[in-house]
Amino acid sequence: MAAQPTPARCRLCAPRDRGGCRLSDTPPPAGVALAVYLSASTARLIELRGYARDLTAEGFKVVSSWLWAAGRPAGDAALRDLEDLRGADALLAVTSPRGASLQGRGGRHVELGVAIERGLAVVVLGESEHIFHGLPGLYAARDWPSALALLRSLRDGPSLR
What we know:
By secondary structure, this protein is an alpha/beta fold. Helices cover 32% and strands 12% of the residues. β1 (35-39), α1 (45-57) and β2 form a beta-alpha-beta unit.
């Protein structure tokens, strides 16, 4: 029996693909937006809302409901965040500078882990905070314009649907 051809691996998932790549080389259908989950310390909420506005204006779908849902009980918030991640194609992980008072409690690290495990495209904005930010296949950006350019290239490259 002849061996089955190995499917092409995409440039986003290849370093961490376990056989279940969600990407293809076909362009996305017209009108389908790249769904992006924004992850950062809640101390950076105002900054993240600005990024969300920029992304929405460029045709991205922002799926981070935590940006506009203050005061939720912790368990409810965590479940909603996980649900939001299930609807994402990519994650923007905004780091906090070393020693910054806005490092937060760490929920963003869980979100990053979920995104990596699900094979989402990940853009890390800012300084690396730990070894997982250096995994092959993750994209690094020093500033917001660079991160936005990376997200545009993900949107305009292989389909994430």
